[in-house]
Design a protein that fits this description.
With 263 residues, the protein is of the alpha/beta class. It has two domains: 194 residues, 2-enoyl-CoA Hydratase, Chain A, domain 1 (Alpha-Beta Complex); 47 residues, Lyase 2-enoyl-coa Hydratase, Chain  A, domain 2, CATH 1.10.12. It is 48% helix and 17% strand. It has a six-stranded mixed sheet with strand order 1-2-4-7-9-12, with helices on both faces. It has a four-stranded mixed sheet with strand order 5-8-10-11. α1 packs parallel to α3, α3 runs parallel beside α4 and α5 crosses α6.
């Protein structure tokens, strides 16, 4: 990976490669709590990714044993209701920005992804986890509920029953179980989550990003719209892609037996 510019926050590290993979590493020891400084750093890193024309964004951790431990309880414990509401808005703003990026995102989960950390991972398009990682939503243990998207996103990945069981028991889930129920998409050896995610991102970056984003949008809406509406949307999107430069380049490259040069 090459350098990719810098961010002012010491809580985030960034790097990029020539193939368009942009890596954001959270660096807020000891547990990567999602404190305001880390959230500001993530937003600044996303600004840089967009400015640099990143094709795929990987979100990983620079802190041993933790992807992210969740919301910053130290920030929440002594604030009044207004302060709690303001922090929640700040956290959700960053999570939703990740979910709404116009390019694919991959979470590289090494260690624990708990509470808001798991919600951040759920906001990414794909999740890679090491075999020793753990994910969970322990908010009920402190008298709260997940509030950065998990009550809505988790059932879409694992179904109502499994989502309820995970949130109502507040138990952590190991990587193999997470893979079996659809909570993560790939499992790798310990210490390899970031590298595996970057390799996956590189393969995706070589493809047409508009096509990938249309696939993501259609799949995400599949459970929410009638089949006929989803099929019609599929046709609308493929016809629009046909008019764009990527389809022309891709078809020419296929006929010329070369790799396409998508920009």
């Amino acid at each position: 990976m090459s350098g990719g510019g810098a961010v002012s926050s010491s809580a985030v590290e960034v790097s990029s490669s020539d193939d368009g993979v942009f890596v954001v590493r959270m660096a807020n020891p000891p547990v990567n709590a999602l404190a305001p400084e880390l959230l500001d750093g993530l937003d600044e890193a996303l600004d840089l990714a967009e400015k640099d024309g990143a094709r795929v964004v990987v979100i990983a951790s620079a802190v041993p044993r933790f992807f992210a431990a969740g919301a910053d309880i130290k920030t929440m414990v002594d604030v009044d209701r207004d302060g709690f509401v303001a922090y929640g808005l700040r956290l959700r703003s960053t999570v939703e920005r990740i979910a709404g990026l116009d390019r694919p995102t991959i979470a590289a989960v090494e260690g624990s992804a708990l509470g808001g950390g798991m919600e951040l991972a759920l906001a990414c398009c794909l999740r890679v986890a090491s075999r020793t990682s753990r994910v969970g939503l322990p908010e009920a243990k402190i008298g709260l509920i997940p509030s950065a998207g998990a009550t809505q996103r988790l059932p879409r990945y694992v179904g109502r029953g499994r989502a309820l069981e995970l949130m109502l028991t507040a138990r952590p889930v190991g990587a193999e179980e997470a893979l079996a129920i659809g909570l993560v998409d790939r499992v790798c050896e310990p210490g390899e989550a970031a590298a595996t995610a970057v390799e996956l991102a590189g393969a995706m970056a070589a493809l047409s990003i508009p096509a990938l984003m249309d696939v993501i949008a259609l799949v995400d809406s599949a459970s929410e719209v009638p089949l006929a509406e989803g099929l019609a949307g599929e046709v609308t999107r493929v016809e629009a892609l046909f008019d764009g430069p990527d389809a022309r380049e891709g078809m020419r490259a296929f006929l010329e037996k070369r790799s396409p040069d998508f920009r």
